[in-house]
Fold:
Amino acid sequence: MSFFLELLAAIAIFLLGLGMSFFFSGTETAFYRVSTVRLMIAANAGDRISRRLLAFAHRPGRFVATTLVGNNVANYLVSIGTGLATVLVVRSEGLAEVVGTWMVTPLVFVCGELLPKNICYITPSWLLRRGSALFRVFYVLFLPITLPLAMISHLLERIAGAATGTADLVFGRNRLTQVFSQGRQAGLLSDAQSRFLTGLLTASGDAVERTMTPADRIFGLHGDATRDEVLEHARRLALTEVVLGSKSKPGEWTHYVRVAELAVSDRPLATLKRPLPRFEAGQAKLEVLLALRTAGDSVGGITRDGVMIGVANERGLVESVFRAGRPLAVASTAA
Structure:
């Protein structure tokens, strides 16, 4: 009688560990798949479950620490249950326990890892909403373990000088990208609008030098060029702006002229020349784009340590945003 009770206890321990593995593996995947925007809307409408989940979304480190500890506990219980059952059935230790663990590994992988992750990847709210109260219980139970880990992590960040807002920035970008994707699927945003907004997030940290036309690829003219020479140069190279420089100092670009203005205006070329604004190579491309738009300019010079290394134009910067921040090929305007 005691043999069957001990075997049932071993099986119960094994199933408990398998169930915990299913739960924590699924909730971890669902946490990264669930829409934070929907949680915020539901929480503002008074949904208590969404409020509970949103609290974890604002502190993802604690959620992740709880799932990691939970998965370790689950694996430990699976190992104990397998070992006890193997010893009871085979009446042998050592190699028998290893073989028993090896035999149940595929079952644990499929039922405790693969299956919950696939289910929660497709329907993240299914397990999160049903298991939110249970997860809260585990969160409180594991707090004596997860809290010191969080404190140590925070201490290491301070020692290493790591930026505390990095994780929030990454999560914020991912959530905004998710919002744009859902807005496009719902018909609130067009495909072009969605691509542009996603590109803004992707390109926000890119330096303008990634989009500029290098100095050796700038097809400009000297400042003494005539109106006809500028128009012919623009027509031949299909330019919308032409940069102008010093005849005595090649590569020193100081002004630019818009071809459209030159073609339709009777004003002298000297009055249509615009000073070429300058930006440091390390400035963000969105910062440069905003500065050009604010000043009403369409071309800017890019410098490093006071030396002109290239130019960037407004159209090229906008195109780089649509291309999700990837470097552009050689621009076809003032360059």
User: Anything to note?
Assistant: The chain has three domains: 2-162, 169-203, 208-322. Confidence is low (pLDDT under 50) at residues 162-171, 325-335. The first strand starts at residue 213 and ends at 214. The radius of gyration is 31 Å.
